[in-house]
Structures are given as structure tokens and as C-alpha cells.
Design goal:
Blueprint lengths: L3 H19 L9 E2 L8 E4 L5 E4 L12 E7 L5 E2 L10 E4 L8 E7 L9 E4 L8 E5 L7 E8 L8 E7 L15 E5 L5 E6 L14 E3 L8 E7 L2 E2 L5 E2 L20 E2 L2 E2 L9 E7 L5 E6 L13 H8 L10 E6 L7 E6 L6 E8 L2 E9 L18 E3 L8 E4 L2 E3 L5 E4 L8 E4 L9 E5 L10 E5 L5 E5 L9 E3 L9 E3 L4 E3 L5 E4 L6 E3 L8 E4 L2 E6 L4 E7 L5 E2 L10 E3 L8 E6 L4 E5 L16 H9 L26 E2 L3
Parallel strand pairs: 1-46
Antiparallel strand pairs: 2-3, 3-6, 4-5, 4-7, 7-8, 9-45, 10-11, 11-12, 12-13, 14-15, 15-20, 16-17, 18-19, 20-21, 22-23, 23-24, 24-25, 26-27, 27-28, 28-29, 30-31, 31-32, 32-33, 34-35, 36-37, 38-39, 39-40, 40-41, 42-44, 43-44, 44-45
GO molecular function, one term: rhamnogalacturonan endolyase activity
Keywords: Lyase
EC number: 4.2.2.23
Length: 644
């Protein structure tokens, strides 16, 4: 039998050794501390198509490393399945398995022993299915909403953090909401902890932005989010005043926040009382540190009047003041920081925090009020956020809609084009140096463009269109192999090339994207359905319809799965969605053969950070730091290290 404990220790040592070998000579390329992932082996019974196996190629090992696959059926001896080392795509199809017995598979590098995550077991007579099932325990009246992943316990495998959602409200809507709840699950359905954010945190897409990331590089991820009086952590400890209720009540006739707006009472807003930022242990859910949230609603008081709110944020009922975004970024190029923001229609404030040695320390604060209004730093944010090293100095910047914040908290530039719902940053046009950003805007009645492609480093606009339009959706992905780079669409009736050429009709889907089949083009993800764009005929072809399997999407008309990310197997992405009764999360894995070998996307820092912010606001797909598509260059080496 293979010594899995010894081999896992050896794999960690080899990981560190090869990480050093992969470091380039560029002084700007510091080693970023990232997750020490296991092999992520997945095995699925595909019936007549055999057992499909898929696993990770790690960013800390040689790109040409060979693999061996072994099988053990019942008590039979271990059998090696491949005649030659597997040097291509990190997958294997076993057409001769006897599944009447429990069957174990090992995947290991040539000449090495298997580690804990390198082994996967199928029970006797496993069902024929292309997904893994994660049992859930939703509270009564709740369903599984947005999710994120992190290695919460340091075993090299991902766990899921799920936002359990009840009755929510948009910021523009009055009314009481359910209390937001966060659950953490292992992939076998073990509930690790539950955090109840309490009555003083409103439920809705723009309120609770939760970050899951290993912020102190100890091998275990933390969870960070805004909290309030009455938040209960994963071990039952209460933050602040357990009895406080800061929600506005319609029966409080003397309250300035109980007046009517439109046809309904202005109830349920939380516009007074202390606000906090809390770091939770990913392993136990325990609150490790809590500090005042930055910025406060008003610089002088936790209980501002409507007039004071309007003076600072532009309205008096909570629509603009309570617009939150969040992300994680490598501001020093080596270790991650967490960034929390407030406001994007008018005043905009971002606060960066470091979690080091058990202390939450503020790194910097950007406040648009600290700058001349002519510079157009206020009112530039989107309902989403992106993070990338836009100036190639090894440190990350925050793409905050039309505004980009440098790693030191200073503004890099603003296009001044204002708010929008979606943005996408990657190497969209590989024939141009650096990264590009495709963004949409709400510009009704103006001369400004509703869509634009720009140089993410300088803000130079390469292409724009849809002047004076309110563009609500915009998407970017490489879906047409006939044209270099990625394509983008939204705001016009044309699909556009990376150079802004009109090359055909637009897909109807403008929601998300997923790398699913065997080629390098990206498929479209609309709710819980996967769509292939037929570039020759200009039509959508549905290749997977999750609704027919009892899946449901989240976020109303925004229609997202719980998560789309490369969390298992090879470099392709998994579709993670809830069943209609929210008793399961299902992780759908592509079992389509591919010829392409790539390092797991989760070891590309920009993509990994994109998975961290995918739950924020209006969910957007994560994009890597390089062009991944038809005709791409070899995947670049990214200098990373993992916790020892």
C-alpha cells in the first residue's frame, strides 16, 4: 500500500523546490503566497464511456511532469492503467473497471507516492452521473445563494462557504429582510460552522460581500465580512450588543427614517448603530478580530440624521450609503490584503486591511472626497469589482469601474465615464501589450459611450460605442476562433472583435462564461445552462440545461449559479449550483475529453482573486491574467509559493 502521509509531506517539499525553479529573473515578479492545493482528483462513472478521471496540474511543479494512474477494485492488487507516463491533458478514461466492487484510483507523478488528495474512491455500483453532490442543511425559509471556496482546514482540498439567503431587498426597496447566514461545508456535506450576521445586517445583493482567502499565509483560509450588533460567530459568540435592533420601523411615527417613499413605508433599513469588520476563522467560524467598519456612514456619528446622510452620500434613505463591494489583492506583491468599500454612485471609499500575526491592521484608505471633484474619482464604481496587476510592477491594482486604484491606495486614473453594471479585465487582445478592460455604462441622454474597451494601465480608450445609452449587460469571452483575441458584446446588436470590428450577431446570453468543453474557446453560462456559440451560423447551442436536472439559479434576473470556478480536476471550470429545494449543491464536472494541458486556473493569481470576488454585487466571471483562448501562446509561468 502507498504511504500517503509520508508522500504528502514530500509533495509539500517538492512543491517548494519546484516553485523556486519556476521563478523568473524579473525583479517585479515576487512570489505570491497561494494555496497548497492537493491533486484534486475526481472520478465519475460515465456508463458506457467508462470512468472519467481528471486532476490538477499545480503551478508549483514542472509543466512537463508525467503522471501514472492506478486502480484497485475491492481487495484486488493495485493495477497501473497507463502504459506510458501521461504527459498531455491531466485526464484518463478507464474503460475496463469492474464497478461491482468499491474502486479506488491513485494519480501520482511518475516515480512518486500518492498524497491524500491524489486518491479517490467510488462505492460499489456507483450511480452514473456527471456531478458530485454536497448535502446542505439550509435553515427553514432559506436557500443556498452565492458561494465561495477556500482551503479552510489546511488539508489541500477546497471547502465551500455558502451564503444562505432568505427574504432579501434591493437598496432601493424598503421592507424587513431575513438575517444573512453563512455556512461552511466540506465537499462530503459536513457542516463545519454557521455564522448568523444578525438583524442589523440587511439581506440583499449589495449588502453582504464575503471574502474567503488565506490572508496570513498559514495554509488555512479566513472569512471576512461586514458585521453588526448581534452577529453570532461559528462558536456562538456574539459581536456587539446582542439585544440591539437598529432597523427602522414603520410604527415609529416620529422616526425620520419611517417616512414613505413611493407606495410603501420606508422600513427595514439599517441606518444607525455601530458597524464592524470581522475576520473569522475559516476552520471554526470563530470571530478572530473585529474593528469598526471604514468608512462610517457619517464621519462624526453612528446615528446620522437623514440630512447628514444626504450631505455625505447624496440621498437620505440608504440607497447610496449602503452600496458595498469587496475584494482581495496582493498589494505588496507577496501577501494578500482584503479591501472593503462603500459607495459608488457618489462618494467612494476603499479601505485596505492586512491580517498579520492575529491582528487586523489598516494599510490605507482611499476617499474620493479627499480629491478635487474635477478629477472625477467619485461616482465611478460598478456593481462589480476586479483585481489585476495592471502596470506590471508585481503588485495588484483595484479596477473599481471607471476608476483604478494603485497598490498604495492612490488613484491611478479615472476615465470619468461613470457607473456601470459589468466589467471584464484580462488580456483581451493579445496583440496589444498588457491588459484590457471591457466595460459598460449607464449613460442615457449623454454624449458619453455606453460601452468601451480600454487600456487597463493607462485608461486610453481603444474603442467605444452606444453613446447616450443605458447599457445593462455586457460580456467578454473568446467564442469565435476566426478572430484574434476575445470577443465582446453588449449595447449593440453586433458581436465585436478585440479590435472593435463588427463580426456578426450577438449571443442572447450576456451573463457569465465557463470553460467547459475540450477546446480553448469559452462557453456561455446563463443561469444554470451552458451554451456553445456556433460562430459559423451565429446561433446559440445549448449543451447543458441544468433546469432539466432540477437545478435553480440565484439573484433573480441576474441569474447566476452559486459559483463557477476551477475547483476540481483539470483546468476547466465546474458549475456549482443548488437543487430547487436547496438540499444539495451539485458540482458539475466536464467529462468531455480535452487535448490541452494547463496549470489549474486557481494558481493564476488574477483568476484566483476573481473567484474570491465573484460573489460580490452582480456576479461576474473570473478571468486569468493571460489570454486563454484559440491560438493562445503557452500558459505563462506565474511565480508563486505555498505555505510550508
Amino acid at each position: 500500500m502507498l504511504d500517503t502521509h509520508h508522500s504528502f509531506r514530500m509533495s509539500r517539499l517538492l512543491t517548494c523546490f519546484f516553485a523556486c525553479l519556476l521563478i523568473g529573473q524579473d525583479s517585479a515578479s515576487a512570489q505570491r503566497c497561494m494555496e497548497a492545493l492537493d491533486r484534486g482528483v475526481v472520478a465519475l462513472n460515465c456508463g458506457d464511456e467508462g470512468v472519467f478521471l481528471s486532476w490538477r496540474l499545480l503551478g508549483t511543479e514542472p509543466r512537463d511532469v508525467g503522471f501514472d494512474v492506478f486502480r484497485q477494485s475491492g481487495d484486488s492488487p493495485l493495477v497501473k492503467l497507463n502504459e506510458q507516463p501521461i504527459a498531455g491533458a491531466t485526464q484518463f478514461r478507464d474503460l475496463h473497471a469492474d464497478l461491482t466492487h468499491p474502486t479506488r484510483y491513485w494519480v501520482q507523478t511518475v516515480g512518486a507516492a500518492a498524497g491524500p488528495g491524489d486518491v479517490v474512491e467510488l462505492p460499489a455500483s456507483p450511480p452514473e452521473q456527471r456531478y458530485l453532490s454536497v448535502p446542505l442543511r439550509p435553515p427553514e425559509g432559506y436557500y443556498a445563494g452565492d458561494a465561495s471556496v477556500g482551503d479552510l482546514d489546511g488539508d489541500g482540498a477546497y471547502e465551500l462557504v455558502v451564503h444562505m439567503t432568505g427574504r432579501g431587498r434591493d437598496n432601493s426597496q424598503s421592507g424587513m429582510t431575513s438575517q444573512p447566514i453563512l455556512h461552511a461545508y466540506k465537499l462530503d456535506g459536513t457542516l463545519l460552522w454557521s455564522i448568523d450576521l444578525g438583524r442589523n445586517i440587511r439581506e440583499g445583493a449589495h449588502y453582504t460581500q464575503f471574502m474567503v482567502y488565506d490572508l496570513d499565509c498559514d495554509g488555512k483560509a479566513e472569512v471576512v465580512c461586514k458585521t453588526g450588533d448581534g452577529t453570532v460567530d461559528g462558536i456562538g459568540k456574539v459581536i456587539g450588543d446582542a439585544d440591539a435592533d437598529h432597523r427602522s420601523q414603520p410604527r415609529q411615527t416620529g422616526s425620520p427614517f419611517s417616512r414613505r417613499r413611493g407606495s410603501g413605508p420606508r422600513e427595514g433599513y439599517v441606518l444607525k448603530g455601530p458597524e464592524y469588520l470581522t475576520v473569522f476563522s475559516g476552520q471554526t467560524g470563530e470571530a478572530l478580530a473585529t474593528v469598526p467598519y471604514v468608512p462610517r456612514r457619517h464621519p462624526e456619528t453612528d446615528d446620522p440624521t437623514p440630512g447628514q446622510l444626504k450631505d455625505v452620500w447624496g440621498d437620505d434613505y440608504g440607497n447610496r450609503v449602503d452600496r458595498f463591494l469587496a475584494c482581495v489583492a496582493y498589494l505588496d506583491g507577496e501577501r494578500p490584503s482584503v479591501i472593503m468599500s462603500r459607495g459608488y454612485y457618489t462618494r467612494t471609499v476603499l479601505a485596505a486591511w492586512d491580517w498579520r500575526d492575529g491582528k487586523l491592521q489598516q494599510r490605507w484608505v482611499f476617499d474620493s472626497n479627499d480629491h478635487d471633484a474635477s478629477l472625477k474619482f467619485a461616482g465611478q464604481g460598478n456593481h462589480s469589482i476586479s483585481v489585476a496587476d495592471v502596470d506590471d510592477d508585481g503588485r495588484d491594482e483595484i479596477i473599481f469601474g471607471s476608476l483604478v486604484i494603485d497598490d498604495d491606495g492612490s488613484p491611478l486614473y479615472s476615465t470619468g465615464l461613470g457607473h456601470g453594471d459589468a466589467q471584464h479585465t484580462s488580456d483581451i487582445d493579445p496583440e496589444r501589450p498588457g491588459l484590457e478592460t471591457w466595460s459598460i455604462h449607464e449613460k442615457p441622454g449623454s454624449d458619453d459611450p455606453g460601452i468601451e474597451l480600454r487600456n487597463t494601465r493607462t485608461g486610453e480608450i481603444y474603442f467605444s460605442d452606444a453613446q447616450g445609452r443605458d447599457v445593462g449587460r455586457g460580456m467578454m469571452a473568446d467564442i469565435d476562433p476566426r478572430f484574434p483575441g476575445a470577443e465582446f458584446w453588449g449595447g449593440t446588436r453586433s458581436l465585436l472583435s478585440a479590435r472593435g470590428e463588427r463580426i456578426g450577431p450577438t449571443p442572447r446570453s450576456q451573463n457569465m462564461a465557463i470553460w467547459w468543453d475540450g477546446d480553448l474557446l469559452r462557453e456561455l453560462l446563463d443561469g444554470v445552462s451552458i451554451i456553445k456559440w456556433d460562430h459559423a451560423s451565429g446561433v446559440e447551442q445549448r449543451v447543458f440545461d441544468g433546469r432539466s436536472f432540477g437545478l435553480s439559479s440565484n439573484n433573480g434576473s441576474k441569474s447566476n449559479p452559486c459559483l463557477c470556478a476551477d475547483i476540481l480536476g483539470d483546468w476547466r471550470e465546474e458549475l456549482i449550483a443548488r437543487t430547487s429545494d436547496s438540499r444539495q449543491l451539485r458540482i458539475y464536472v466536464s467529462t468531455i475529453d480535452t487535448q490541452h494541458r494547463m496549470v489549474t486556473l486557481m494558481h493564476d493569481p488574477q483568476y484566483r482573486l476573481g473567484i474570491a470576488w465573484q460573489n460580490v454585487g452582480y456576479n461576474q466571471p473570473a478571468h486569468p491574467s493571460f489570454f486563454l483562448g484559440h491560438g493562445m501562446k503557452p500558459q505563462p509561468n506565474t511565480p508563486i509559493r505555498t505555505p510550508e
